[in-house]
Automatic annotation (TrEMBL):
PROSITE patterns from the UniProt entry: NUDIX
Stretches assigned to the Nudix hydrolase domain: 31-174
MF-aspect GO terms: coenzyme A diphosphatase activity
Protein name: 8-oxo-dGTP pyrophosphatase MutT (NUDIX family)
């Protein structure tokens, strides 16, 4: 498909810089709970998009209703975080990344709190590039899936702030609102690192 030279350059920069990128890895991650997610890029007409999902509303889920990337907890049968990202993406969206695309690199580990317990959880993001069209079939964990244009995220005027609070703690945090969907937190941190490669 035809792409603008700016978008084509941006995609090539991501691929080239991911190839030489050294993400921060938590040396202690093998001793804590681990998760992995997939940042899936596709080329459409003259632009590049990244797939995001809105998590279904579920009682007791701290990320209920949040915008996120396909992914989840590493199982014992998962040899690597990459396998976790591929398996969870297929379960949540019906996209089989081994057939529809390929991994072009990974980003830095992010430390998060797990659903339960006091131990931290390490989340590893992997970046994929689709080379064939896909249809999305969300499972019960996903309320919807949406393709977000990178050009929207790259436009500084689209950056906004939000107020977040828990108990006595109140913070002003960066975010995006894409078609009334709020992108913030860990997902935004991953996107910032990805866009920082361009």
């Amino acid at each position: 498909m035809k792409r603008s030279s700016e978008e084509a350059l941006a995609l090539q920069q991501i691929i080239t810089r991911l190839d030489g990128f050294k993400p921060r890895q938590r040396w202690w991650r093998r001793w804590v709970k681990r998760s992995a997610v997939a940042l899936i890029l596709r080329e459409l007409d003259d632009h590049i998009e990244v797939l995001m999902i809105k998590r279904a509303d579920r009682e007791g889920d701290p990320w209920s209703g949040h915008m996120a990337f396909p992914g989840g907890r590493m199982d014992r049968q998962d040899v690597t975080g990459l396998r976790t990202a591929i398996r969870e993406t297929e379960e949540e969206t019906g996209i089989y990344l081994d057939k529809a695309g390929h991994c072009i690199g990974r980003l830095s580990d992010i430390v998060s709190r797990p659903h339960s317990g006091r131990q931290p959880m390490v989340v590893t993001p992997y970046v994929f590039r689709l080379h064939t069209a896909v249809s999305i079939e969300p499972n019960h964990e996903v309320a919807e899936a949406v393709w977000v244009p990178l050009r929207f995220l790259m436009a500084s005027g689209n950056r906004e702030t939000m107020e977040w609070g828990r108990g006595k703690l109140h913070l002003v945090l960066p975010c995006y609102f894409y078609e009334k969907r709020r992108i913030w937190g860990m997902s935004l941190k991953m996107l910032d690192e990805l866009l920082g490669l361009i």
